[in-house]
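[step 3/7] inverse_fold.run input=structure_tokens len=184
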């Protein structure tokens, strides 16, 4: 780049003199013409073209950058929407997961309750089986019942009737009879 300071100073001085009309301008024009030789003017034109080319190039680059920024902004917005969707999906997943965990916990508690019920039912079943065994034995052996199974139990009415015995005594007498029957 060439230094055009002197040319600028002379041109500025001519403009000042032309507006004031106080100083003779001819000497200034001679100095200006000497400074504004054809080589200087050609250099100015070449520099002007070069700078104009730079400006055009910069504008094209700026347009490319603007297009790239627009694309990046669109991609950013798309990614933000995708992240928001993923966040919503993850939150829904977390909610479903929490609900499933609560359901599993309720199921496990229900299973534990059912197991407790099963244990209680097995105990009751064993007791009922024992009662059923007594009843079957009594049905099969009621006519052969004698005082040997009574084990010293006295009847309330003084007669030999099973119906006069308390339930526990009848159960004990039947159990004793069942025990003797199993031994034989």
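[step 3/7] decode complete -> sequence:
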């Amino acid at each position: 780049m060439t230094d055009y300071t002197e040319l600028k100073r002379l041109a500025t001085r001519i403009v000042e003199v032309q507006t004031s009309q106080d100083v003779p301008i001819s000497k200034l024009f001679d100095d200006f013409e000497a400074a504004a030789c054809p080589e200087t003017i050609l250099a100015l034109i070449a520099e002007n073209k070069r700078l104009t080319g730079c400006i055009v190039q910069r504008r094209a680059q700026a347009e490319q950058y603007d297009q790239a920024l627009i694309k990046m902004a669109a991609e950013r917005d798309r990614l933000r929407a995708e992240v928001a969707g993923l966040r919503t999906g993850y939150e829904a997943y977390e909610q479903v997961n929490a609900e499933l965990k609560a359901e599993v916990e309720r199921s496990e508690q229900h299973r534990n309750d059912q197991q407790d019920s099963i244990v209680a039912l097995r105990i009751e079943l064993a007791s009922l089986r024992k009662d059923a065994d007594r009843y079957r034995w009594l049905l099969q052996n009621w006519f052969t019942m004698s005082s040997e199974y009574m084990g010293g139990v006295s009847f309330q009415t003084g007669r030999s009737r099973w119906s006069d015995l308390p339930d526990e005594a009848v159960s004990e007498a039947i159990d004793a009879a069942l025990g003797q029957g199993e031994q034989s």
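[step 4/7] annotate
Confidence is low (pLDDT under 50) at residues 153-159.
The chain is about 80% helix and 0% strand.
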